[in-house]
């Protein structure tokens, strides 16, 4: 259900259930979480097998839920999304085809979301009398703003790759999303990790700036880094 491989400095995590558009069961969520917990590479590339990124939660699983198990399932997905978000390195979601519901929410937990021109995204839960509960109602407005987030979530409309790029859901549109992961991996590993931690810092601005200056000093102090400006 989840395949992993390592190619140089990039760990490739594949949602591998193409017949179900890579929809995730509880077991699939566990395997995805384990793939990130086991990773140590500076860059992780998350993508889906076949013609979809991820259809979100497995509908057979959703149909079997009662109130208590629904809360557990939502918290399960939220925990996995946090594991992705808090990974100590850069995470790139490569979206080649549909991403729906929980699939969008997992992508939102990544640092970059790169879609091919064929990518489509939708928070389609509203059409089923539900909504994305894997952290989407928090992350989507944080990324695109409240007004656009409400439009996407309340309408359930399908965003094309260009729509998603214009809205800020996608970071880039590229025919080769994996190449973006390789692009990041070509950079200095420590600087890559440091930048992610600095950008994701939620402390008050003055405290962030103090930490930023300290982190810059730590990078400068390293004897083996390519910042000596010899050219």
Can you give me a brief rundown of this structure?
The protein is an alpha/beta fold and 231 residues long. The chain contains ten helices and nine strands.
Question: What's the helix and strand layout?
Answer:
Blueprint: E1 2-7, E2 10-15, H1 26-38, E3 43-48, H2 59-63, H3 67-85, E4 90-95, E5 98-100, H4 102-108, E6 112-115, E7 120-122, H5 136-144, H6 146-155, E8 159-160, H7 161-167, E9 172-173, H8 177-185, H9 189-199, H10 205-221
Parallel strand pairs: 2-3, 3-4, 4-6, 5-7, 6-9
Antiparallel strand pairs: 1-2, 7-8
Describe the protein's architecture and organization.
This protein starts with a strand and ends in a 10-residue tail after the last helix. The chain has helices spanning 26-38, 59-63, 67-85, 102-108, 136-144, 146-155, 161-167, 177-185, 189-199, 205-221, and strands spanning 2-7, 10-15, 43-48, 90-95, 98-100, 112-115, 120-122, 159-160, 172-173. It has two domains: 2-183, 2-enoyl-CoA Hydratase, Chain A, domain 1; 187-221, no CATH class. Helix 3 (67-85) runs parallel beside helix 4, helix 4 packs across helix 5 and helix 9 (189-199) packs antiparallel against helix 10. The longest helix is centred in the N-terminal third of the chain and has 19 residues, at 67-85. The model has no long low-confidence stretch (mean pLDDT 95). It has 231 residues and is α/β, with parallel strands linked by helices. The protein is 46% helix and 16% strand. Helix 1 links the parallel strand 2 and strand 3. The protein has a six-stranded mixed beta sheet, with helices on both faces. The chain has a three-stranded mixed beta sheet with strand order 5-7-8.
């Amino acid at each position: 259900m989840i395949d992993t491989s390592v190619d140089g400095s990039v760990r490739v995590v594949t949602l591998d259930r193409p017949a179900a558009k890579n929809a995730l069961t509880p077991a699939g969520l566990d395997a995805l979480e384990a793939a990130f917990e086991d990773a140590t590479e500076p860059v992780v590339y998350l993508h889906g097998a076949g013609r979809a990124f991820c259809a979100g939660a497995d509908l057979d699983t959703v149909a079997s839920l009662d109130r208590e198990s629904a809360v557990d399932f939502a918290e399960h997905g939220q925990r996995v999304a946090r594991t992705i978000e808090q990974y100590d390195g850069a995470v790139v979601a490569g979206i080649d085809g549909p991403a729906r519901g929980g699939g969008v929410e997992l992508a939102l937990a990544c640092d970059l979301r790169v879609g091919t021109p064929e990518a489509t995204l939708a928070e389609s839960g509203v059409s089923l009398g539900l909504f994305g509960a894997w952290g989407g109602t928090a992350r989507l407005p944080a990324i695109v703003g409240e007004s656009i987030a409400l439009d996407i979530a309340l309408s359930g409309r399908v965003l094309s790759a260009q729509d998603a790029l214009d809205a800020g859901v996608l970071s880039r549109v590229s025919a080769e999303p994996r190449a973006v992961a390789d692009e990041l991996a070509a950079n200095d590993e420590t600087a890559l990790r440091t930048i992610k931690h600095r950008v994701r810092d939620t402390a008050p601005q003055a405290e962030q700036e103090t930490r930023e200056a300290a982190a810059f000093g730590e990078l400068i102090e390293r004897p083996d880094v390519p910042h000596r400006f010899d050219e």
